[in-house]
Amino acid sequence: MWCYNDVENYDNYDFIRSPKRGKNYYCLAFNVQTSQADGVISGMKVNDKNGDQNQSDDEEFLSGWEMQLKDAAGGLLATATTDETGEYRFTGLTAGVYEVCEVMQSGWINTSPMCAQVELTESNMNQGPDFFNRQLEEGEETGTITVCKYDDQENNGQPELLVGECNSEQSPADYAVYKNGFYWAWASPCSGGCSTVEPIKVPGWRFATEQEWASRPDVADFGTPDSFKCAASHFDYTYLHCDYSDAASGYLSRIPNGEHHETWLIYDCSAQRDDLLISKASAIWNSLIDFVTPKSALAIFMLGNPLSGWTINLNATDESGYSNSKVTGESGCVEFTVPYGSYRIAEVMQTNWSQVTPGGDGYYDVTVNSDNKTPTFFFVNHYTQPEEPILGCTDPTALNYNQGATQDDGSCQYSQGGGGSVGDSSTTSYGGSVFESTASGSTPPQVVVKGEEGAPSLKVTKAITSDLNFASPGQKDIEYTVTVTNNGNMTAYGVVLKDTLPAGVSFADGSANPRTWDLGDIEAGQSKAVVYKVNIEAGAKAMLYKNVAEATATNIDQPVQASADLDVRAVSVLAATGFNAIEFAALLIAFLSLAGTSLFLRRKMTVNEN
Prior knowledge:
Layout: E1 2-5, E2 14-15, E3 25-28, E4 39-47, E5 66-71, E6 76-81, E7 87-93, E8 96-102, E9 108-110, E10 115-120, E11 126-127, E12 131-135, E13 142-151, E14 177-179, E15 182-184, E16 206-207, H1 210-214, E17 229-234, E18 237-241, E19 251-257, E20 260-267, E21 275-278, H2 282-290, E22 299-302, E23 311-316, E24 323-327, E25 333-339, E26 341-347, E27 353-357, E28 363-368, E29 376-383, E30 391-392, E31 407-408, E32 421-426, E33 458-464, E34 478-486, E35 492-500, E36 505-507, E37 515-522, E38 526-536, E39 543-552, E40 560-568, H3 581-595, E41 604-605, E42 608-609
Parallel strand pairs: 4-11, 4-12, 13-29, 30-31
Antiparallel strand pairs: 1-2, 1-3, 4-7, 5-6, 5-8, 8-10, 9-12, 13-25, 14-15, 14-16, 17-18, 18-21, 19-20, 20-22, 23-24, 23-26, 26-28, 27-29, 32-38, 33-34, 33-42, 34-38, 35-37, 35-39, 36-38, 39-40, 40-41
């Protein structure tokens, strides 16, 4: 608490730690309003027997299902179990972004996404998604589709490989690794003089002992590590030899490593080739993308730069109608457990990213069955740093058109015969509402108060500036001037002027209707004017045409409008009178002198303020 001590005549507010008895203090307390932890996220679990993500009369709620509440970064905050009514509930939450996920049970499959994002706001602190699941039918089998995302930072169509330091004392036999009952041989470039590709250190794995290697299961028998012979090296190439005649197809597996999951390519041998020239990653990458027959080497490589926070959508392309959506985590991968069937997998692109793989239509189609039970797919993307915008006039019809500008700054200027000009002029700031005089038929201005101080106050005026009394059908190049003035004491940001012409009237330069001008920022006391011309259609009716202009700004709540009325009159052709031209002119002058001037300009101009 900060206080002013009038006894000691302090001239500033000071922090008083020990108030003295008998003295007077005038204090100012600073308080911070905190978000109350009274938010609730709740929802229902439904037995979606028909898989339509809606509850039918015969579809009951599901109890005993574990639900997880996570923060925006995916960290686990709490768990809950659906009660006998099928409801889950998380309470005591503050405003913010959360994620609710279900924990799948054996024999079930989800028909709605397994995770859903929820944002609690001060105005809506009680909400939550429902989750839909169905039981697998008798004999119904499922497969797992793995989708991984990587950042191709070098934009070369190849993944970056993360490698460790090479230990020249290790032999190929040292690179037999053992994990969860699976044995993999690992080609070492450290032997035989090869040094162009360094060996990989696999987090979460260890080297197999001789006893473990000798007792490996036959199903995992890909030969002995001695089969790998690093024969020679040439620049960035390493020559590997493999004589495995019965190796299985390659696949990707995720290897646990503490709280992280890394993704590795298992690269197998085949009898079709017994040697392979590897240019670090290129040959591996080609095999990975093509999913062709196994190649002729067995090695483990870690793919670098996984991408988290990307949405992957999966939708059935057959009659099942199954769909799901997941967001990649730190490993860059997501897994979908799905019934046998046909599916399409697509990613949701993000700003400034381009897709390297798969290319083409940008998605994968796959059929999951007994012959293809655990397929894996990759989306590889490259990020392009956006360039700083080059400000200038981007309208090719303007006098100061800047061909190199990438963002319009509202500086375009036009000739009187052009489609519109924007100019700045300094005007007096009256510090309050200004009511301009209006033409005949005008309406009072609308005033919108924007706080007591520190607010912009826009004024729009619109008038016909061509020297004419009235217009006729087919008349061209009638000039309007629209002026936007800021009479407030704060800059109006991002001002945009929009003009809408009535039917029968068009812009002289052929611009679309309505037309907009980006005026940029208008400082306090500043004005910007737009000048443009219009044409009256030849078949236009004789009537009063109202032309409306509207200005908006990013820090103004309501748009400000102004209008001008254009009087269009039909031209009548006189029948033959028997008078010659001189006689007719004299008669017309006499008539006008008696009746008074009957031709007049009828204009209407209104002023609105914000």
